[in-house]
Every structure is written in C-alpha cells, then in structure tokens.
Specification:
Elements (H helix, E strand, L loop, with lengths): L3 E4 L4 H12 L19 H14 L9 E4 L16 E4 L35 E2 L8 E2 L1 H8 L16
Parallel strand pairs: 2-3
Antiparallel strand pairs: 1-2, 4-5
Helix pairs in contact: 1-2
InterPro entries: SLX1_C, SLX1_endonuclease, Znf_RING/FYVE/PHD
Keywords: Endonuclease, Hydrolase, Nuclease
GO molecular function: 5'-flap endonuclease activity; crossover junction DNA endonuclease activity
Length: about 160
Amino acid sequence: EMELFVHGFPSDVAALRFEWAWQHPNASHRLFAPPLRRPREQPISFALRLLPHLLRAPPWSRLPLKIRWLRPPRPALELAPPPHVVEEEGAGPPRLKRKKRRGPEVGVAISGCGICGEAEATPLLRCPRPQCSMAAHPPCLARLFLAPEPLQLLPVGGACP
C-alpha cells in the first residue's frame, strides 16, 4: 500500500531522476554516503529512512518539494526532512494551480527595475502582493536573494525589497 508521494518537481525528468536515486541509492551519484539497509529491514522502512537523505542531497535540497502522506498515522522519520520541504496529509492528489490571467492593471506605471533602475530590457517580475508595486529583473532579484548564500546558483526565497 502506498505510504506517501513526493511532488513539486520542476519537470518530469527531475522527478524520474529522484525516483531512480530513491530506488538505487548505492548506484546514485547524488548520495555521498547512502545509508545501508539493516538486516531484516523491510523495504518500505529502508525507503522511509532514505527519503530525508535524498531530500537533503543536491539537486533536490533546493527544490520546493512536498511530501504527501496518504495514511494516518504517518511513521516518524529517523531524520527530519529539510525545513523547506512541506509535509501534507490526506489521500487527495496534489491539485494543479491554474494560472490566473491578470486583467489590465490600472494606475500602475513601472518604468524599470526597482533594484538596478534600468528600463525593461527583459520582462520584470512583479511582487505577488496586490498593494506592492515592486518589479525587478530576475537576475537582479537572484543577486539580492543570494547575497547570504553566494555559492548557490538559484535562490530558494527572499523578501520583497
């Protein structure tokens, strides 16, 4: 019986790579020191013990993944998932979010990037809060959000400047 599923991958390929690494932890190059299966350990117990290690390994350690537990009570994991991984409960599949079409914006004149000040050379990202008129280039936001983590390539999150 299925215990859980992990979702939120950016593509089918990323999900398949995660699944393959989960099924073949000793052959995967993503885990540096995969835990060994204990004598008489059930396959599901080993998979649940392995899951947090995979979620902490690059490239999955920075993805906004979710774990959906399908049956209560959910078992306690030996190692907690990373703090950015959301845990959900319930049998329902994840609902796909439909993109809302924005109507014409009234009274919002954005002349350029709110960080670098340059004109709209590339499309600007807008703050999702309705009362905020901030807009910035994706690379400008990435540099700002990655300032505390200079060795990373993509930001996990950040506060609107």
